[in-house]
Write a structure and sequence with these properties.
Elements (H helix, E strand, L loop, with lengths): L2 H16 L15 E4 L7 E6 L5 E5 L4 E5 L7 E4 L6 E7 L2 E6 L4 E5 L12 E3 L6 E8 L6 E8 L7 E10 L2 E11 L17 E4 L6 E5 L4 E5 L5 E6 L8 E6 L5 E5 L8 E5 L4
Antiparallel strand pairs: 1-20, 2-3, 3-4, 4-5, 6-7, 7-8, 8-9, 10-11, 11-12, 12-13, 14-15, 15-16, 16-17, 18-19, 19-20
Length: 276
């Protein structure tokens, strides 16, 4: 090989070595979403969930309002439930729409009140979970159990673990049943400093039972088995995932991820069809 050929080979090799590898969990292609742009009111879209049908429910992190719409439709309904605040995620549990605020406070009102402009039966729980920052909430569709993951909590300081809390209903009241941990020690992108996972959303694959933990800060989708053992990590391409803040599965097992506006022209919801 002549000197010119060797130079081209060296440049190509260096380029390949510098390229980040973007992978996808089994059954999905994270590089090929169907994109639904959001109206301006949802530029700051954070949490998303389904309530059994094909309507998507969402919160944005500035207003105490639950929005719902059918992806692709221009019709958008809104239900006010609280004051302005940093609302991060929502889930359907025990016939209620449950909303998580970043300080760990929880709000709930009957799902049928999403037909109203303002909810009338709102419950609020403060200091149910330890002081910290929270953005990830999931509700089991059968038991109604709620799972809350810390984004930044004192219990996890200087460790690789993420603490979570299992909440159960007792009549009309919520109570913490137990705590659990997710060990993210395998995050080794930058070995020069400690890597910690900062969950921004949580969902469970209805077909496999696996946990999907989304982290906007880490630009990462982490997959764990039903016992919270990490079995996969997938880096998210910044050009597609400017600020991924919400995650959900529909009843067919399709994966949905919401993106706040950030540098993008619109807030958006991305759909990833489940491969058969």
């Amino acid at each position: 090989m002549n000197k010119f050929g060797m130079l081209l080979f060296s440049l190509a090799t260096a380029s390949c070595m510098g390229q980040k590898e973007y992978t996808s969990p089994a059954g999905y292609d994270l590089s090929r979403p169907e994109t639904f742009n959001m109206p301006v009111i949802l530029d700051e879209i954070s949490g998303i969930t389904f309530a059994g049908g094909d309507s998507l429910y969402a919160v944005q992190d500035e207003s105490g309002t639950v929005f719902h719409f059918k992806p692709g439709s221009k019709e958008l309904a809104a239900t006010k439930f609280g004051k302005k605040g940093d609302y991060e995620d929502l889930a359907v549990s025990n016939g209620h729409m449950v909303i998580l605020r970043s300080d760990g406070s929880l709000f709930a009102f009957p799902v049928n009140e999403t037909a109203l402009n303002e909810a009338v039966s709102v419950q609020e729980w403060k200091k149910l979970v330890p002081e910290g920052e929270y953005e990830a909430l999931y509700a089991d569709p059968v038991s109604g159990d709620l799972y809350v993951l810390c984004k930044q909590c004192k219990a996890d300081k200087k460790t690789s673990q993420v603490t979570g809390y299992l909440l159960q209903w007792s009549g009309s009241e919520l109570a913490v049943k137990s705590a659990f941990t997710l060990d993210a020690a395998t995050l080794q992108e930058n070995k020069s400093k400690k890597n910690t996972l900062k969950p921004s959303a949580l969902a469970r694959n209805p077909k496999t039972g696996e946990w999907y933990v989304l982290s906007s800060v880490n630009k990462m989708l982490l997959v764990a088995d039903p016992q919270w053992k990490v079995i996969g990590m997938h880096a998210l391409k910044p050009s597609l995932y400017a600020q991924p803040e919400g995650i959900a599965f529909d009843k067919a097992g399709n994966l949905w991820i919401s993106n706040e506006k950030n540098q993008a022209a619109y807030g958006a919801v991305l759909k990833f069809a489940r491969k058969q």
